[in-house]
Amino acid sequence: MIIESKVIQGKKLIFNFRSAKKEDASNLSVLRLKIDEETEFLDREPGENFLSPLDFEKLIYEDSISEKNIFLVAEIDDKLVGFARLQGNNLSRFRHKAEFGICILKDYWGFGIGNSMLESILMVADSNGIEKVSLYVVETNTKAIELYEKYGFKREGLLEKDRIHKDGKYYNTVLMGRLANKLKSQ
To answer: What is a single molecular function from GO for this protein (predicted)?
Structure first.
């Protein structure tokens, strides 16, 4: 799915928010590596599960023609600073669900980019028959958990000792979900 480009006045900065384009593939490959190096909150160590520009081109194309997927980017002064992706499920038993993730360069945390991406993802999900949106978040990422709860996500489970980081310590993962507005009243 493709959304129209929007200019957003965030907290102390203005950013452009739009669907990813084929031309973004190289920059997305580099951006993903940089973000992986900046935080322990993601599932990957830096360089793991590397996505090449061709891999990103394929994702961008597949998401652009899907009714349940969306790939968004945030840019400031023509520089990509973050991205988000909602991925629906094509299996019959899970076609009502989708999962998402958001990645933003650390220098741009706290400026409202994540809020804007999440709002757009939920709008797309709600308007396209996705009844449940799920995510996994490391328990120590309290800012992200607060953001998700603000948008109606509930904690559905805790995966204990689910991940091990470079420091040799185990961390728990919180499973969160949000039901579409029409289901909340049932």
So the answer is: acyltransferase activity, transferring groups other than amino-acyl groups
pLDDT digits (tens, 9 = 90+) for 122-170: 988 998 889 999 999 999 999 999 999 999 999 999 999 999 988 899 9
CB 166 within 8 A of CB 46: no
- The DSSP code for 52 is -
Q: Which two tokens stand for residue 119?
A: 């709002």
Rounded to whole angstroms, how far apart are CA atoms 37 and 35? 5
Burial class of 6 by CB neighbour count within 10 A (0 to 12, 13 to 18, 19+)? exposed
Using DSSP's 3-state secondary structure scheme, residue 55 falls into helix
Strand duo 170-179 + 154-164: pairing: antiparallel
Measured distance CA(28)–CA(149) in Å, rounded: 28
Q: Strands 132-138 and 170-179: what pairing?
A: antiparallel
Read off the pLDDT of residues 4-59 as tens digits, 9 standing for 90 and up: 677 777 678 888 889 999 999 999 999 998 988 877 777 666 777 788 899 999 99
Q: Which comes out higher in pLDDT, residue 129 or 185?
A: 129
Q: Are 98 and 89 spatial neighbours (Cβ–Cβ below 8 Å)?
A: yes
Distance CA 177, CA 186 (A): 16
